[in-house]
Fold:
Amino acid sequence: MLTDDKCDVINFILSDKTYQIPYSPSTFTCGDYAEKMLNNAGIRCGYVSIDFTDNSASHACDVFNTTDRGLLYVDCTQYECIVNIVGGQEYQPVTITPMEDMTRPLTLWE
Structure:
């Protein structure tokens, strides 16, 4: 699998404005954000579908395989965020851009 440096990925994420599209449960969902970012990337990127252990709705994000950090998961549903995905642990996106407030429910994924 081809890889990119983490700096290449972060530079792309900071330049991509997919997260600015308003979320709508009927017209633009997390899957749409992940697909749009994937199509905008210009560097190798994958689409990730996540199923949560509490049987709540599933979620989608993107993944980049970096040369220096391994797999880097990115969630751009509301903000430009990095996510550490580990089975059985909370799904908690961490923003890479400044913002005033980020409150998201914590959910476990498998």
